[in-house]
Amino acid sequence: MYLVLCNCSPDEASTLSEGLVREGHAACVNEFQTVESVYEWDGEMCRDRETTLLIKTSKQRYDAMKAWLEDHHSYDVPEIIAVEPEDVLDAYRSWVVEQTRS
Known about the structure:
Distance between the termini: 15 Å
Largest sheet: 4 strands, antiparallel
Shape: elongated
Strand order of the largest sheet: 2-3-1-4
Low-confidence stretches: none
Radius of gyration: 14 Å
CATH topology: Alpha-Beta Plaits
Number of domains: 1
Number of helices: 3
Oligomer: single chain
């Protein structure tokens, strides 16, 4: 199982979250509204309001999830950071795998 972090514009958060679940790429997506992101892009200092998506997916669906997110995300370089947790409730891990079975 993977936990994946992805920031996006607040306007596209629901579309991305629902698409990931509908297409079977994620079992669940949590939307953390309105985070402030500070970064440099093309030599310019930027400060933007974003929504952080916390995506739960299986190892088997990770590559398809990443490809779908790259295709549907509005950013040129979307933040996609995957973490494999060491300790997950077995029943929850099983649910994630079942929900993302193609």
